[in-house]
Amino acid sequence: MLQWTLHQTRRPRMGYPQRIMSSFYGTLHPDFASVARALRRIVPRKAPGGAAICVYHKGEKVVDIWGGTRDSAGSPWEEDTLSLSFSTTKGVASTLLHLYVDRGLIEIDAPVARYWPEFAAAGKQDLTVRHLLCHEAGLFAIADMLDHAREMLDWDTMVERLAAAEPRHAPGQAHGYHGLTYGWLVGELVRRVAGGKSFSELIAAELAGPLGLEGLYCGVPPEQQGRCAQLMAAGLDAPPETARGRTLKIQRGAERWRDRLARLGFKYDPTDTLAALAPAGMEELDWNGEAFRAVSIPAANGMFTARSLARLYACLAGGGELDGVRLLSTQAVERAAQPQNAGAGRVIPISMRWRLGYHRVFAVGARAPRAFGHFGFGGSGGWADPSRQLAVALTVNSGIGTPFGDTRIARIGGAAIRAADKRRP
Length: 425
Hints:
12 strands, alpha+beta, three-stranded antiparallel β-sheet, seven-stranded antiparallel β-sheet, 12 helices, Beta-lactamase
């Protein structure tokens, strides 16, 4: 395979040099040069921030590039830099669950309480695994369950609260993005059938180990903390009083918009969005702290390299197998990719066309109706398209976007799809 190797002859010095913004490292197949151009438009030119992109096509790694800075001091983004990827973690958690479905240890249409008996409380005895995976369980309102967001750092507390929680709607009667609760719901279900191992141990043993993934963590061990990029976003380091004031303003605005939309006949309630994504004290969490990185929040705090994400999704794009390693059966991948619902949801007012743990793929200037994956707050994302045998992943540490990604991953995806479609067999 002909490849271009991207590099600069001399490593930039510390202190945020301007020249690093035009320099990238890694390997790139010439057919996918447009993906590198898309990365150039993503990495900030006059501010700290970096990113990495990896693309697999037909089992071949055709893009593996990175650039920019990993912290506010100007330290260059390295080949092994880990980046907080927020909801992109949900796709990884879902893949782990499908592995146990494939082994016959979990049935998609079985009640969750079959595996997690305490979950039957508050009328949830008939709520199924399928309801969890396609966000139809009605358990999205984490604000109803917590006194303070710091409780999210304790797995046992979150499991107890979710087991006792009452759904906001009957299972299957609506869908609403379980922006934070999804991780513990799926994660505890997996732990119950896997003998009680920690979620981070299961990621390492069942996904990272078999596929040789060097950067796939949900719970970063102490010896890997030094690889983590600093999340850099406007307002992230605001004083607590300022952050609380901003949160209160958003809450009041959501209530006003709820009333206005109701008068106009719209069903969307923005206070549902806040209940799902902003429990009390959320603004006080230290997203860059070692304590936050060390625990497992499988809906929100995965620390990944783009290379590991892309390799995982390349396995799914190949029907569950990559480089002689079979992770899932072809039937399991096909089942996971099937759309389960459509239309705007109660938390996200657009159609995500939820699959079993994944959503549709948004791509600028291209269509990928059979693709599936998960994007994240802050701009990261990973996805697979079995029809093209294409997998794409982006990790990034600057900017915010939306709870389900932003245009950066959509632009990268569009460039990769167009390049794949033009490529000669």
